[in-house]
Design a protein that fits this description.
alpha+beta; two-stranded antiparallel ribbon; Arc Repressor Mutant, subunit A; 122 residues
Length: 122
């Protein structure tokens, strides 16, 4: 059985979960949603929303930058593209998450984080 995880695409303007997906290929699948080659072919509501975000100033500001290390919440099993994303989604302090990742704290508000084996490259 392959390891897979559930991920969500969140609208940074409203903080609303707009899409839930499942990936068996690490962080590759969530990142493919924003690649131009996929968006040109895809005419779904999800693709239209992603194109709209890419054109908006708020959306551009929320796009993750290259070579961020993905993290995993071992309590829930969810993967996050970055510490910043995990903090925003869970309502946690980025510094607290970093302390857990460095081993200075065991947990933060019941969440335990580790670096994921996936590296995010945009």
């Amino acid at each position: 059985m392959t390891d897979s995880f559930i991920y969500g695409l969140i609208d940074p303007r409203t903080r609303e979960v707009r899409y839930i997906g499942k990936s068996a290929r690490g962080m590759q699948r969530p990142l493919e949603h924003s690649k131009p080659c996929y968006l040109r072919r895809d005419r779904t509501h999800k693709a239209n929303w992603i194109r709209e975000l890419q054109l908006s100033i708020e959306g551009r500001a929320s796009i993750a930058r290259a070579n961020r290390r993905a993290i995993r919440d071992t309590t829930t099993g969810f993967h996050y593209i970055s510490v910043k994303e995990a903090a925003e989604v869970l309502g946690l302090c980025q510094r607290s998450i970093c302390c857990v990742l460095r081993g200075k704290r065991r947990q933060t508000r019941g969440h335990v984080f580790v670096y994921s084996s996936a590296t995010v490259e945009l």
